[in-house]
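Page 42, continued from yesterday. The earlier attempt failed because a stray header line got pasted into the input along with the sequence. Redoing it now with the clean sequence only.
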Amino acid sequence: MLMHTLYDMPLEEMTMSHMNMQVYSQGFGHSHAADATGFMRLVYILEGSAVFTHAGGTLEARAGDMLYWPCDVAYVSLWSGACNQFAVIDMRLVDSKGTMVNFGDAPRVLFRDAHRLYEGYMDDIANLSRSAQPFAWLERISLALKLCCEIAREQTRGAASGAYGRIYAGIVYLEAHYTENFTIDELANMCAMSATCFRKLFFTCKSMSPVDYRNSLRIRRATELLREGMSVTRAAEAVGINDLKYFSKLFKRFTGLSPSVIKRETQKGIAGGEEKV
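This time it went through. Structure tokens are written below.
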């Protein structure tokens, strides 16, 4: 049963019996063998590139690619980047009849994360694995499920390709200028349509409003800056938000954490000599 076709499924008809999340590092020329026995696997490449070989053929993937492996498909990955990192989420989700819910029967690259939005999910999941916060484990599961939801939405966007083409100019502008302030009317004018029509088509393509999409890009970049050592105030200003209280509220909405928590954990990692993920 394909996950991205289940637009509306009663919660009581679903059972999750397995979940595991790990981040791995591999050097140049190293190989990694795996077998997704009894569960589906999502592999997100954080850094580097690799060739994945399985019984049905090979897949080439690089940083930003999200790969999918069906249940019980074994593979070997050979890494060619100077520095290679990848995150893995294993999950078993079944319906009331015991049928596994997944993204299909064949291994494939689900999509290329051009703007590295999903990298943030993986970073947050990895950081929570080292966190001493109460219920950090539960938050990791929550983020993993949210990630699956976003992937399912991503898989439905192919049907919206016509809509995407109509608002392409607005999307490109937004992604290039997300640190700036502009109106929906301005984006709509670039696409020769009304603001109402633009909002509707945008939601069809991105499953969120233009404002939420811009804010998600801002928070993702701010998270990167905080982990690079920038102060909370400067990170907020760098992504176009001058109201620190609003920035903190927005940051927690998108990440589940306050910016100060990210900052503290980064400083602890540096002080303790930990390798950043």
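Notes: The longest strand covers residues 14-27.
Reminder to self: strip header lines before submitting.
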